[in-house]
Amino acid sequence: xxxxxxxxxxxxxxxxxxxxxxxxxxxxxxxxxxxxxxxxxxxxxxxxxxxxxxxxxxxxxxxxxxxxxxxxxxxxxxxxxxxxxxxxxxxxxxxxxxxxxxxxxxxxxxxxxxxxxxxxxxxxxxxxxxxxxxxxxxxxxxxxxxxxxxxxxxxxxxxxxxxxxxxxxxxxxxxxxxxxxxxxxxxxxxxxxxxxxxxxxxxxxxxxxxxxxxxxxxxxxxxxxxxxxxxxxxxxxxxxxxxxxxxxxxxxxxxxxxxxxxxxxxxxxxxxxxxxxxxxxxxxxxxxxxxxxxxxxxxxxxxxxxxxxxxxxxxxxxxxxxxxxxx
Length: 327
Prior knowledge:
Blueprint: H1 2-24, E1 46-51, H2 56-64, H3 78-85, E2 87-97, E3 109-117, H4 121-127, E4 134-141, E5 144-151, E6 157-162, E7 165-169, H5 174-180, E8 204-209, E9 233-244, E10 247-256, H6 259-279, E11 290-294, E12 297-306, H7 307-324
Antiparallel strand pairs: 1-2, 1-8, 2-3, 3-7, 4-5, 5-6, 6-7, 8-9, 9-10, 10-12, 11-12
Helix pairs in contact: 2-7
């Protein structure tokens, strides 16, 4: 009788310990997609929103074209194809380089990408195998245990905290994972650099704060390129609306610190826009372009941009993701 009682007591103790261990790792909250920007730090250098189905052709051009401009999808990463096929929206933040400065040949770009869609945890685990260089890691935060995969060679990180949310990063994935489990009332989740327009047509939206103005150097004419960190440009916003498969119309604004700076730079902005138009084979000045000074900002609309021009602008950002990815 005592032996039976002793065994029963041991079983009860075991069950209690197991229950306590299980309770110490809370069930992950379900993803709520009201504000995916809440997953990102507020001190990024560039923020990009891209609705995938509406701009799939542009994404294919950006991700799969070779340096010589030819298309070669045969060698495209299966992971990227899967991402595009199952994603409705992409949210990207660039954080600068690992040296704390802007990207250079000797530094790697730091970035976080979040895809909202429908994903399979089974297929993800099936593809991210140790044989391919992937290892599973875990972090504990706010009473939760979260797992992610990291590639031993490239350092690329992938996490699927919810079947509707896929997070990929160059090495900063712990930040969005920690944000994911924060209470929805947490003020940090209210961060929203871009007001996403949910009404068709859905545009590509771009925001570059002062900390990331150097990313504009491939887009601005030499006269407008910032020569130091005291650049007069405070921020840059742009929305790209698709007109047809090969062209877009851009609307946006360039924010300056003072009104006189905006007025004095408006002439150079007009010259820069005229240069883009002429480079695309345009003749004369398109009547669709409108440029006006509104306080401390220069606002523009109706700027025609070809697929190739957009590719030149975005390539430096997307290339890093596409060429670093090996999954």
